[in-house]
Amino acid sequence: MQDELKFQYWEEFNQLMKRRLEELEELKRLGINPYPYEYPVNAYSDEILRNFRDEDPPMSVSIAGRIMSIRRMGKATFSHIQDSKGKIQIYFKKDVLGEKYDILKLLDIGDIIGVRGEVFRTRTGEVTVKVDDYQILAKSIRPLPVVKEKIDEHGNRIVYDPFTDKEMRYRQRYVDLIVNPEVKQVFIKRAKIISTIREILDSHGYIEVETPILQPVYGGATARPFVTHHNALDMDLYLRIADELYLKRLIVGGFDGVYEIGKDFRNEGMDRMHNPEFTMLELYVAYKDYNWMMEFTESLIYNVCLRVNGTSRIKFGDNEIDLTPPWRRVPMFELLKQYTGENLEGKSEDELRAIARRLNVDVSSKIGVGKIIDEIFSELVQPNLIQPTFVIDYPIEMSPLAKRHRSKPHLVERFEVIISGMEVCNAFSELNDPIDQRYRFEEQARLRAQGDEEAMTIDEDFIRALEYGMPPTAGLGIGIDRLVMILTNQKTIRDVILFPHMRPEK
């Protein structure tokens, strides 16, 4: 039944495209340019609806938008057009438009038009623009998706709507934005989140900078990179996996506070929380530590949420999240003990593998102590952390760029912020001892030789920068896409990225 309905849909679709192409040619034959160069717009749907008053003098407007409905009734036609702000009804009359009224038969849902006229209220109470003149601005030759229904032999209503398919919506975001205008609000809010972050960071005197995306040595995180080739230099380069090492070079150079909001790239799997191209904020502030950064982070996210949503209590899925500071702070090993019943602190690699087997956590034979602990934490602890939580004090094996804990040298001064089971932030008291940093890089190189493709490489120039001296520094990374997910109540990262990566179309 579904295959039959699908075939019928495409037959109708092809006929509609053929008819629209014929209409396009007829418009040209009549001397009408269906794709003109400009149109004078002086009003938008939302402000017309908001400002119209029956007792006010007549309001003349010039608006433009996409036709979303047409109701032809002989010598009168009603339509709704959608602009960037919303929808409004427009009203065509033959005795006003004359011969130009007859050209309306060549217009379809999806066409973009400009109209001029006075605003009035219909007998049914709807604010409407009475059209004195109109112009075709773009003829749509591909029909917008609309719901198709059929009743089967058992009387069941079957709906075939090609644009409820998530994959099609992500591939054809331009259509998604047209037929699901509420989607646009997510991305308007995303832009406001980013601009608010910038405003707050700038108000603290931190300098926004740009660092290389193409890097000869990738680093700053444990991830597999994308590789490309520079023809003129005849050398391989890597798309950055993090901004960290270049930003810390600037702290060495004398900046007290720098940040970057930009794209990072990791050649890894895709799921509801991962896209190979994603947006990160990284911030580094000299003479601060991770304790200071915890207070700064909760204040930053709280204030962004307050300015964007008007409240610090938000809905995410089935949970209500309260972002009001202070947030809970819990050591990582304490959480591991709470949710697994196992004490993982100080255990050897073999002991950790045995614990993972008991807990039914599958771990690769190619990874070391840090990754084993991370796998157990991600699978058995992280999903339970719903309210904003600072997970603090990580094992040194998990954090090759973080400073050793001042009272527990087998740990580092690091925190992650977990909200609704998602890692949103990662931060350190930054490692500024060049000898310790070289040792950590060499340990990462050993793990790479063991088969861990995500282990870091040795960056000799970064070590050289540290040898000149880097002041005590606090660093922070925030996954912008995940933060937007939480602040807009979107369950997958693809719903907050305009053009997420997809497999090739068949």
From TrEMBL:
Binding locations of Mg(2+) 1: E416, E423
GO CC annotations on file: cytosol
Subcellular location field: Cytoplasm
UniProt: Mg(2+) 2 binding residues: E423
CC cofactor note: Binds 3 Mg(2+) ions per subunit.
UniProt KW keywords: Aminoacyl-tRNA synthetase, ATP-binding, Cytoplasm, Ligase, Magnesium, Metal-binding, Nucleotide-binding, Protein biosynthesis
SUPFAM superfamilies noted in UniProt: Class II aaRS and biotin synthetases, Nucleic acid-binding proteins
EC number of the protein: 6.1.1.6
InterPro entries: Aa-tRNA-synt_II (IPR004364), aa-tRNA-synth_II (IPR006195), aa-tRNA-synth_II/BPL/LPL (IPR045864), Lys-tRNA-ligase_II (IPR002313), Lys-tRNA-ligase_II_bac/euk (IPR034762), Lys-tRNA-ligase_II_N (IPR044136), Lys-tRNA-synth_II_C (IPR018149), NA-bd_OB-fold (IPR012340)
Reactions catalysed according to its record: tRNA(Lys) + L-lysine + ATP = L-lysyl-tRNA(Lys) + AMP + diphosphate
Entry-linked Gene3D superfamilies: Bira Bifunctional Protein, Domain 2, Nucleic acid-binding proteins
Cofactor(s) it depends on: Mg(2+)
Ranges in coiled-coil conformation: none
Aminoacyl-transfer RNA synthetases class-II family profile domain segment(s): 190-504
Single GO BP term: lysyl-tRNA aminoacylation
Single GO MF annotation: magnesium ion binding
Main location: cytoplasm
One of the Pfam families matching this protein, by short name: tRNA-synt_2
Principal EC category: ligase
Quaternary state and interactors: Homodimer.
Family in the record: Belongs to the class-II aminoacyl-tRNA synthetase family.
Protein name according to UniProt: Lysine--tRNA ligase
Gene behind this protein: lysS
